[in-house]
Specification:
By secondary structure, the protein is of the alpha/beta class. It has helices at residues 11-20, 23-31, 69-80, 92-100, 134-139, 157-174, 199-210, 229-233, 251-261, 274-277, 284-296; strands spanning 44-49, 87-90, 108-112, 144-151, 178-189, 192-196, 219-223, 240-243, 267-272. Strands 1-2-3-4-5-7-8-9 form an eight-stranded parallel beta barrel, surrounded by five helices.
Length: 300
């Protein structure tokens, strides 16, 4: 297929290291080349790869698109090598693989923290922290931690998730690490969670999420591109990265929407997974280059 990453990731070698020399992972984290969070233009392009841990393997009409770890890693390495890509957001298993592959040198790395609210589960809104802790973010030299914060007034599990996210924001701020909060105003319909993507609902979610923790000094938001985004962004002064979501529409419309949103002062970049890693034409490098150009203006 045109544009599918041509590289072959030796997953057998990764398994061999994990089986025989697991201590190499901790050593590589200690040795990793770091960089400042923001480049000179103050904008970020991050690739997201934390979907599988939440049972969210689907892309468009392929329910198992992200099931192959070798394929996912090949796509991630291809993306991370492109000019203008600042880093990656992922879970420990994916980030450890990328570390061993040498793909994280000089990159921004954000660890995904709460992955317990599995997609489609009866407890989806009880979104427990089953990934990175703030202490582990600091220990591994990560730049921050990301947390999904779905707020459903009709579900009692929401309050536990809010408290856990508030504690994480506080702990990350104390360690001077980014707290990337991804808030949604949600409802449960026929046993399934649905995020409300109208402007008023996003404003409510942003208002609640912005106040989590004892300090907002290191809090960033991760938000979808919605209609009337200008009004949503007027609800906060926190720096914001836009997410891509499951790419259902035409790519040109998606890119145009990102371009318009990136003109807003509080929007500081993109954190996108499936739309860049699994584009319709399968050309990962081309999709990433378009996003890099939108974020950094001609870097790619």
């Amino acid at each position: 297929m045109t544009g599918v990453p041509s590289r072959v990731v030796d997953t057998a070698a990764l398994t061999e290291v994990r089986a025989r020399e697991p201590e190499r992972i901790a050593a590589r984290w200690e040795e990793r080349i770091l960089r400042p969070l923001l480049p000179a233009d103050g904008r970020l392009l991050l690739v997201a790869a934390d979907h599988p841990a939440r049972n969210a393997l689907g892309v468009r009409d392929d329910a198992m698109a992200m099931a192959s770890r070798s394929d996912l890693l090949a796509r991630l390495v291809t993306a991370l090598e492109r000019p203008g890509v600042d880093g990656v957001l992922g879970t420990p298993d994916v980030l450890d693989d990328l570390l061993l592959l040498g793909a994280l040198e000089g990159k921004v790395v954000i660890g995904s923290m709460n992955r317990g609210g599995l997609q489609g589960s009866a407890w989806e809104l009880d979104d427990r922290f089953t990934g990175y802790t703030a202490a582990q973010v600091q220990e591994r030299g990560l730049d921050g931690g990301k947390m999904l914060t779905r707020i459903a007034l009709g579900d009692p599990a929401t309050v536990a998730t809010l408290q856990a996210c508030a504690n994480a924001v506080t702990e990350l701020a104390e360690l001077r690490r980014m707290a990337m909060v991804e808030p949604f105003w949600s409802v449960v319909e026929a046993g399934r969670v649905r995020n409300l993507l109208d402007a008023d609902s996003m404003i409510r979610a942003v208002s609640v999420a912005s106040a989590l923790g004892t300090s907002s000094a290191h809090t960033w938001l991760k938000l979808p591109v919605v209609d009337d985004l200008e009004r949503v962004m007027d609800a906060t002064t926190l720096p914001t990265l836009l997410l891509g979501g499951d790419p259902q529409g035409e790519p040109r419309d998606t890119y145009a929407g990102w371009g318009r949103a990136l003109e807003l002062p509080a929007v500081r970049g993109l954190v996108v997974g499936r739309a860049l890693l699994y584009p319709r034409d399968a050309d990962v490098a081309a999709a990433v280059d378009i996003a890099a150009d939108l974020v950094h203006g001609g870097v790619a």
